[in-house]
Design goal:
Blueprint (H helix, E strand, L loop, with lengths): L16 H13 L18 E6 L4 H15 L7 E7 L8 E3 L5 E3 L2 E3 L3 H10 L3 E2 L8 H4 L2 H8 L4 E7 L4 H15 L4 E6 L4 E3 L1 H16 L3 H11 L6 H13 L4 E9 H4 L6 E10 L1
Parallel strand pairs: 1-8, 2-7, 2-8, 3-6
Antiparallel strand pairs: 1-11, 3-7, 4-5, 9-11, 10-11
Helix pairs in contact: 1-2, 3-6, 6-9, 7-8, 8-9
Length: 281
């Protein structure tokens, strides 16, 4: 398998290292963002097991995503970051685990934990597959944030989900918990919430999913999305990471921020919803 070159640099986020850093600082200091730059002296034990983070262009969702990464910056980096994103392209396997070479962004290379990729593919119905990842943005846009707060000191395991039903998510979540065991690991679920809804409708619908997330009710997330007709693109990653976090000893979930593209870009006619949550021990 090959290196994974950036697909959306220059569109979803800036294309040069200096410009990306400027854009990330803008995200952290934005009025919707946390209002502070990441910590540079993390200490103590890690408590965050999972972050739920959006994946639109940074000008839209970056300030919301910055909340999760700001909290992560307060803790030491994990050894491995498992990134789960939905499949927007329709390419590749139902559950595609990247088992190839490094992922590249304009900020540099990030190594892949190949033994972990193999273990996941052997313990559930996921496949080692690169095709699903080549043009998929949902995982790629998380990497500059991680590179910025951790300065390259971590490995990743990217997983792209075309199948997002509860049964598949449950199986994948349990598999991840099994293979991660007591390793120092972070799970990131990449998702946006309602798509192109009126501003008030998006807030109302997404609040219902948010309550299920706060209750760490993985099955409830899937049921609410279907029952309410919510155009959330990544319920599978969210359900899988909730399941894995619970098996790894999660105690609570906290909402850091919810906002829409209408809050960050100004247009409220048809918005996309973004949420940042952390699940902790």
């Amino acid at each position: 398998m090959r290196d994974r070159s950036p697909s959306v640099a220059g569109t979803f986020y800036e294309a040069s290292p200096s410009s990306i850093k400027d854009q990330l600082r803008w995200c952290f200091l934005h009025k919707v963002g946390p209002g502070a730059l990441p910590e540079r002296t993390p200490s103590g034990k890690r408590s965050i097991l999972t972050v739920i983070s959006p994946h639109a262009g940074y000008v839209y969702s970056g300030p919301v995503a910055a909340h999760g990464y700001y909290q992560l910056s307060k803790e030491p980096p994990p050894d491995v970051v498992v990134l789960l994103g939905p499949n927007h392209t329709g390419m590749g396997a139902g559950i595609s685990v990247w088992g190839g070479e490094d992922w590249i962004t304009p900020m540099g290379r990030v190594a892949v934990d190949k033994p972990l990729a193999k273990s996941v593919s052997q313990t559930c119905s996921a496949e080692l597959d690169d095709e699903a990842h080549l043009y998929e943005h949902s995982i790629e846009v998380q990497l500059p944030f991680l590179q910025y707060i951790y300065e390259g000191n971590f490995k990743i395991l990217p997983i792209c989900m075309m199948l997002q039903d509860y049964g598949t998510s449950l199986e994948l979540g349990r598999s991840l918990a099994k293979v991660l065991g007591d390793r120092s690991a972070l799970l990131i679920a990449s998702t946006d919430f309602s798509h192109y809804e009126p501003y008030s409708v998006a807030y109302k619908k997404d609040a219902k999913v948010g309550e299920a997330i706060l209750a760490m009710d993985a099955q409830g997330v899937g049921e609410i999305v279907i029952r309410e007709g919510i155009s959330m693109c990544g319920p599978g990653p969210v359900m899988s990471t909730i399941v894995a976090a619970q098996e790894l000893g999660a105690k609570s979930c906290r909402r850091l921020c919810y906002a829409t593209s209408g809050d960050t870009s100004g247009s409220r006619g048809g918005v996309v919803g973004y949420g940042s949550f952390v699940v902790t021990r």
